[in-house]
User: Fold these one by one.
Assistant:
Number 1:
Amino acid sequence: MQINAALSAVSGGNALKQAVGIALLSQMKDSQTAQAATLLQDFAAAQHPNLGKNLDIRI
């Protein structure tokens, strides 16, 4: 989906195009939010379970 096309439809004078553009922008926002949440969950799952809990110092 092209965000520029959706934005131009929202700013246009046609009410139907505005409604469709707003719906598309909402869907894109929801999709990007879901993708970001999945990315963060995957990142958290990939971390080592003991990361930050132990400190090894040798002199």
Note: The first helix runs from residue 3 to 11.
Number 2:
Amino acid sequence: MRALSCLDAGTSFERIDEVARAAGMDAVVIGDAVATNPELCAQLEESRLRVVLNLPLLFDPELLARRPETLAVTSTGGRASVGWLQMACPRSEDFWTDRSDVLRTALAAVRPDMVSLDFARTFVFWERVGPDTRPEQIEHGCWCPRCLDGLEPPADREELGRRAAQAVTARIGQAVDLVRESHPDVPIGVKVVPWRMADYDGAREWACGQDLSAIAPLVDFLMPMSYSALIGRPPAYLREMHRELRETAGRPLMPWLQAAALDGSDPLPVDEIAAMLDAIEHDAELGYCVFHLDGIADRPDVLKLLATRAPTSNDVKEIV
């Protein structure tokens, strides 16, 4: 499977299909907002495209705007709201109750071929953490009273991180149960922050709350956000990260390819995209997802690159 990300539920099916065909894609990643567009749901159901339903767990700007008290508190003492990124406390039952209703609605609106659990972590703006960032400079959370309860002040970063990982793992388990209620046989993956185990003193766990040894038994595969250009790493970093993820979790990989720049910056050079694609193709047992439709739709060089690298049906394994 090679899936083109299109999380804008207002995008027409015709545009999705046109860009997917031009890039040699056989699937599309859609978000939970697709439930608001029944026409698109029906067209996808009848189309050639397979569907990856992307379900954010602790990210929902509209819900957090209505329930600001459920926002996480970061290590700097402020609310977990920086630019477009706002994230909930993983222990907030009020947030999770309302968020679960959104997930159920999306799962009822579309029949997915795969489910991707997104924002299955605590607050970290990992896209802004460069190779030279010191661990103590990483703003993360949650440090709210719920999460600090029972810890002697001053709170120990590592202990709080272990508790955060437990809370995140519990939410992943609950999300998996929601998916299984309506789609018992659909493969479920979880997105993973693109850091190696030792990076930033093990920040994938203490800052992000992602304990892969605990998460792996709950899901079928991992989806690393393999954006080496974004995080200032060479493509070889991806190969090392993929190897470590596979060895740690014992799960196949379906990485994400960065084919577009973020935050309106200059377009990524096609040779940088090709170098990331080389690393991803080598390690993608289940195929990969491409970020994102609007970023590549008007770039014939990128569309050609992706189309010429489309595998045959025998090149990609299926989850058994």
Note: The two ends are 14 Å apart (CA to CA).
Number 3:
Amino acid sequence: MNLMTVAEVAEFLGVPESRVERLAREHLLVASDKDSEGKPLFAVDDVTRYKTLAERLGGL
């Protein structure tokens, strides 16, 4: 499974890192694991599906 860091997700979605962390806290984007610093890691497929859904609902 390919995992993305908060910074990679933020870049992919075009949003600030703080927004990605908030999405994870609110369980709108579910983290698959955590790194050594305790920050969430996200599955590439989940992030891609989230982006598609968000765009269909009116944008990120």
Note: DSSP finds three helices and three strands in the chain.
